[in-house]
Amino acid sequence: MAYLTLSNVNKIYPNGYHAVHNFNLDIEKGEFVVFVGPSGCGKSTTLRMIAGLEDISSGELLINGKRANELGPREREVAMVFQSYALYPQMTVYDNIAFGLTLQGVDEDVIEERVKRVAGILGLTDYLDRLPRALSGGQRQRVAIGRAIIRKVGVFLMDEPLSNLDAKQRVTMRYEIAQIHRETGATTIYVTHDQTEAMTLADRIVVMKDGYVQQIGTPRELYFEPENVFVAGFIGEPPMNFLRDRVENGRIRIGENELDLKQVQPDIEKYEGQELFFGFRPEHVSLTDPGDAYEIRCRVELTEMLGENTNIYITIGEKQAILKVDSHDTPETDIDFTFYVPHKYVYLFDADEKRLPKA
């Protein structure tokens, strides 16, 4: 296992495009860290700089306390799993997994022992004689992971390894990757655009946007304590609702509803005359008054029954929002409707989209 430090790391391409801005992060031994964000946010570029596949324009990468900027990929003691599997089609599963050790000239008996152990961890023991074309997508991804973990390296890097799988396979592979991490205890850095993968796998998550780190924290911290509108809207499914309006006399008007913000922000007078975002998660609403809650009138436009839960698409005046309720409570469409948002689940953000500190 290894620990890493990225200090003010930047990536600027020859054409002047600044892909990653002042990236700072300490990763502990054995930690599972996920980089998450939309396409083009810089997460894969950062991973490739750690791997040595991209040069670091400025800043410093330390692996086990030693500067690694000038080291080649092999010298960094990292192993990478790509989105595309990158398996050799003419080689059996056994030979694909063993390939790195074979190149290193490791003794055949040692290779066989390690391949069998890795195959056992990954559930591939019965497939060692098969070619990749005879495997499912999930099995191919397990082979790619096996080829990485068979090497005794300090860090495993995974670049969107599940993006080519269907929904059912992704759920299975998420579980298997989590189990592999428990078995190996390896320091792992994982890149995805899927916030569900991030939330279910990570010890800590790095949320990125436009090359900048937006927030670093545990899944719980990002869900319950988002620092800005982007993080609050990116983490959670369906995303957080944001209703924006100007504060007047300590209140905000949303449709026909006038909400006294002093209930959640005692120093609301500091924001008088400013536009604020009133945020709440779809799953945090109640259809009966729980006390200490805002009562909000709306109009039901559409419902989506999803088994246990129903998504209710509503309008509040000219604003739109989504509620997530028990399917037994699904309302009719085109009716007026009342729901409640407990004060403790309300988030306020300023015009710069930063969450307001609690007074």
Helix content: 10-25%
Biggest sheet details: 6 strands, mixed
CATH fold description of the largest domain = Rossmann fold
Count of DSSP strands: 19
Rounded mean pLDDT score: 93
CATH architecture of the largest domain: 3-Layer(aba) Sandwich
What count of domains describes the coordinates?
Answer: 2
How large is the radius of gyration? 24 Å
Principal-axes shape call: elongated
Strand adjacency order, main sheet: 6-7-8-3-9-10
CATH level 1 class label of the largest domain: Alpha Beta
Protein described:
- The protein has a six-stranded mixed beta sheet, with helices on both faces. It has a five-stranded antiparallel beta sheet with strand order 13-12-11-14-19, with no helix packed on it.
- A hairpin with a 3-residue loop joins strand 15 (293-305) and strand 16.
- The protein folds into two domains: 4-234, 3-Layer(aba) Sandwich (Rossmann fold), CATH 3.40.50; 241-349, OB fold (Dihydrolipoamide Acetyltransferase, E2P), CATH 2.40.50.140.
- It has helices at 43-51, 93-103, 108-122, 137-149, 167-184, 195-201, 219-224, 229-234, and strands spanning 4-12, 18-27, 32-36, 58-63, 66-67, 78-81, 155-159, 187-192, 204-209, 212-217, 241-248, 251-254, 257-260, 275-280, 293-305, 309-316, 319-326, 336-342, 347-349.
- It contains eight helices and 19 strands.
- With 359 residues, the protein is an alpha+beta fold.
- The two termini are 43 Å apart.
Topology record:
Elements: E1 4-12, E2 18-27, E3 32-36, H1 43-51, E4 58-63, E5 66-67, E6 78-81, H2 93-103, H3 108-122, H4 137-149, E7 155-159, H5 167-184, E8 187-192, H6 195-201, E9 204-209, E10 212-217, H7 219-224, H8 229-234, E11 241-248, E12 251-254, E13 257-260, E14 275-280, E15 293-305, E16 309-316, E17 319-326, E18 336-342, E19 347-349
Parallel strand pairs: 3-8, 3-9, 6-7, 7-8
Antiparallel strand pairs: 1-2, 1-4, 4-5, 9-10, 11-12, 11-14, 12-13, 14-19, 15-16, 15-18, 16-17
Helix pairs in contact: 2-3, 2-4, 3-4, 4-5
